[in-house]
Amino acid sequence: MKDTSTQLLALIRDLLRELHPDREVARLPLDSRLTEDLGLDSLAQVELLGRMERAFSVTIPEQVFARVETVRDLLRAVESAAPSSLSDRTGSEPSVQTPPPSFSPETNPHRADTLLEVLDHHVRMHPDRPHIRFYNDTGTGETLTYARLRSEAEKTACGLRSFGVQPEEPVPLMLGSEPDYFFTFFGILMAGGIPVPLYPPFKPSRIRDHLLRQKSILNNCGPTLLVAMDEAVGAARLLKAQVNSLKRIVTPAELRRESGSAPAPSLSGRETALLQYTSGSTGIPKGVILTHANLLANIRAMGSRIRATDRDVFVSWLPLYHDMGLIGAWLGSLYYGARLVLMSPLAFITRPVRWLRAIHEHGGTLSAAPNFAYSLCVHKIQDRDLAGLDLHSWRGAFNGAEPVSPDTAERFCARFEKNGFRPTAMMPVYGLAECSVGLTFPPPGRTMLTDRISRIRLQRDNLARPAGPDESAPLVFVSSGRPLDGHEIRIADDSGRELPDRRQGRLQFRGPSATSGYYRNPDRTAELFRDGWLDSGDLGYMAEGELFITGRSKDIIIRAGRNMYPEELEEAVGDLPGIRKGSVAVFSSCRTDRETEQIVVLAETAETSPRLLEKLRGSISRLASELLEIPPDVVILARPGTVPKTSSGKIRRSSCRELYRQGRLLKGKGPVWWQVIRLALAGTGPALRKGERRSAEYAYAAWAWTMFYLFGVLVFVGAGLLPGLSRRLRFAGTAARALGKTTCIPVAVHGLAHLRGIGPCIIACNHASYVDGYVLAGVLPVLPAFVAKVELTGHPVIRFLLRRLDAQFVERFDAVQSARDAERLTRAAKQGRTLVFFAEGTFSREPGLRPFHMGGFVAAAESGLPVVPVALRGTRSVLRSESWFPRRGPITVRIGPPIHPRALPPDPDRTSWQTAVRLRDLSRKFILAHCGEPDLTGNSGAPAPGSFDVFH
After folding, report:
1. Distance between CA 41 and CA 46 in Å, rounded?
2. What does the alpha-carbon distance between residue 910 and residue 734 come to, in Å, rounded to a whole number?
3. Domains parsed from the chain with CATH numbers
4. CB atoms within 10 A of CB 12
5. Which of 204-213, 241-250, 880-889 has the highest mean pLDDT?
6. Helix axes 610-628, 566-574, angle to 10 degrees
7. Cα–Cα distance measured from residue 770 to residue 952, given in angstroms and rounded to the nearest whole number
8. pLDDT, tens digit, for every residue of 520-561?
9. Cα-atom radius of gyration of the chain, to the nearest Å?
10. Angle at alpha carbon of residue 859, lines to 58 and 826, rounded to 5°
11. Which DSSP helix (H) or strand (E) runs through 249?
């Protein structure tokens, strides 16, 4: 242990010296906190984990990324990690697998009526055959055989019966991607119960939202017992107090303590095998009833289309509470006797290359993921990680569960073609829980089909006519293939009449995989069926037998005789700086005093400043006018977590509409003017209570705030009325300069010539006060996009103002969203967006330059944009942290010469990370020389956690 700890501390010291070459790293206790004491943000921690894996030849569990806090935690992770790291195996040959004998028609479980019969078949034929391999980067992870699955499931069934679980009783399981999940799922079936997959809470900060969502599901299915992983027991007990029927919380280990055998229940294909909860309106979850016959019919149909055999290897990181991961990946592999290589979702998110490396190592032939996962691989996997990677075995890359971007799919194919990925492997698919999981698949062996159609004809006439060569803004849709064997689809109008090809309408389906309805929800079940067909809730059209999905029928907006599609506007609004990507809902709502529908845009932001929020409103209105040719009637800027989502992250627009109609979206916040008043009272109150300020200071503070409110109102009005983002930005800059003059705060600017003619760049600035953003807005020639942490969306006024200023928001704690934000910001930089990062990430009362975050410099290194250092001096004295009492004082802004990544001394061995470190060091050197404050890198003034430099 001593040698390991010494080596680990040496690694950390090396990284700290690289990050902070001027800081002396002498004493480094094992209980040092990575963020608070050492100043390692999440990007630096990921870099450290990679170095640890290479140094110790181990694979660090992905949970470390989310849970590690101290050096001692890292030491424990190394000591308990499996040998042979991912990076050590870069360039290794795929593991040699002896192909199992293929099943003959006589031994194939095609006669099985239930999932239990499928498992029994494999136990009889090959009990010791590997069923699931749990991937841990070494290729030697735990293996689950069919015999062990059956044995442990029987123990679980005995435990469930001893706890009083009755036949046909729903039993929720809140478990992760671990062996216990599979034992429990089949144990519930063996006990005669009905599995109800729930997703476990991974983030303590999100426990409230998690509980609220699970509470509605549990109250709907009415269980008496819930099976939870050890880490989720606390959350589950909180649920117990809110669900009347729930009597007991147990862990899988507790269930398997019981001995004995579980007599096989008498089941038929008509019995319910699963309740798959999907999105529903507020408080009314929809539990899709899926029988054994439904599941087996869907698995057989999908397997027939893709020609699945027992020689296939399915590699999956998809969560098991989602139908694509549960049914498509696991139960499909179970049926065909294919080997399943499983990793946790967090394992993929922390290092996307793991997914591809697992396919390489295990000869994966099939895998599935939403579109964002393919995008993540394109943008976040480094070329050096692809050395020796062989994807020739991958014949089916299913892309579904969210809209498929043709650009993303094409980029993925092009990026990994040199590693053996064939474009014919990319398979956009369509499915829904009401059809078990899959409904349409393309045939194997063909490339992706896209359709370029006229936007105006689709919006106005519901006609999917091919766009002309000169059309400037066509719509491009991806084919989802053809219906699975035994299933039918059609496109119908609102009256239920089927439409011809290239006519947009409601997608309806029927077939053996279709559900019989929603559990304990007769009203929604009645809405689902129409003349023997099930309404998918989606809009689409058919062309030459191919299905093209265009949007959700419930989400379409009809205005002035035109159909408008919310997805396009949501994506555009989500790209606005200041708006949380993936947290925008566009929907229509009828008011009792109006005959027409009104268009509502609901977007989450961390901004609370009224001026910035108003600017965001203007940006959203402009986008809506450009895309829909009609401005929205209502723009709602809400705090993070307001927009309802499904467990897989899809926007629940019907829930948004219902909350809006009930007036609950911003309940308790009051109008904007009242929020501003409350903000002022909260800010000036502490200063007034001290009683030590002179009357002149109070008079100045009152004047300054009066001017702030006055110009805030002007910015609200101007940003709302002025057309075009550039005009609104210029107006905001003019207002910021006028505010400085009326408050008698002189601002001296030096080095403006460095920004003239430079083009897009990354502006790195120190952060000392709340007024920093306003100062930069007034002095920069062109107002850039500020990068802000999503925590600011919890303050409605600041959230509003920052959104109106077109700020970019980044998530610092949620791994999935942080990865998406990182990709979005780097992409924005590559596309020519000038970004402002406050490199310290936050500020405090004490003067001094804090350690810099790496996010902005990594974006510069990867995009090739120059970094322009900007030093602010005097803003801390004007408005200090933890105080809302402004004071007069001079402010100096000094703009340094741009630092071009390509102008650094050539070094063929330099990585993008090392380039980013060099850019940071040079920027910090300039800022430290001109900010007029001491260097705090040697004390506890470490930056707040997170990957990004943010506007505080």
Report:
1. 9
2. 43
3. 2-85 (1.10.1200.10), 147-261 (3.40.50.980), 450-552 (2.30.38.10), 561-676 (3.30.300.30), 704-930 (3.40.1130.10)
4. 21
5. 241-250
6. 140
7. 7
8. 999 889 999 998 999 998 999 998 889 999 877 656 565 544
9. 29
10. 100
11. strand 248-250
Looking up tokens 């057309």 gives 723
Q: Considering all CA atoms of the chain, what is the largest pairwise distance in Å, rounded to the nearest integer? A: 95
E strands in 544-596: 546-552, 557-559, 562-564, 578-579, 584-590
Nearest one of 282, 346, 232 to 815, comparing CA atoms:
346
Tell whether pTM > 0.90.
no
577, two tokens? 């700086």
Pairing type for strands 785-789 and 835-838 reads parallel
pLDDT in tens, 905-923: 877 777 888 888 999 999 9
Q: 905: buried, middle or exposed (CB in 10 Å: 19+, 13-18, 0-12)?
A: exposed
Q: How, if at all, do strands 533-543 and 557-559 pair?
A: unpaired
Tell me the percentage of the chain whose pLDDT exceeds 70: 80
Q: Return the closest-CA partner of residue 233 out of 260, 207, 197.
A: 207
Distance CA 576, CA 799 (A): 13
Per DSSP, the residues of 811-866 read -SS-HHHHHHHHHHHHHHHHTT--EEEETT----SS-SBPPPPSHHHHHHHHHTPP
- Tokens in use for 762? 């990354």
Please choose, from the candidates 799, 781, 611, the residue with its C-alpha nearest in 3D space to the C-alpha of residue 711.
Answer: 611
Distance from C-alpha of 357 to C-alpha of 596, rounded to nearest angstrom = 53
**What DSSP line would sit under 141-162, residue for residue?**
--EEEHHHHHHHHHHHHHHHHH
Cα four-point dihedral sign 380, 385, 387, 391: negative
Residues in Cβ contact with 334 at an 8 Å cutoff, skipping those fewer than 6 apart: 115, 118, 119, 122, 131, 340
* Residue 742 burial class via C-beta count within 10 angstroms: exposed 0-12, middle 13-18, buried 19 and up: middle
520 is written with which tokens?
């304990």
Residue 72's region, left for phi above 0, alpha for psi from -120 to 50, else beta, is alpha
- Give exposure, 106-130, as e/b (b: 16+ Cβ within 10 Å): eebbeebbbbbbbbbbbbeebeebe
Cβ(331)–Cβ(295) below 8 Å:
yes
The strand order across the sheet containing 194-198 reads 194-198, 170-174, 225-228, 248-250
Pairing verdict, β 82-83 and 58-59? antiparallel
3-class DSSP state of 478: strand
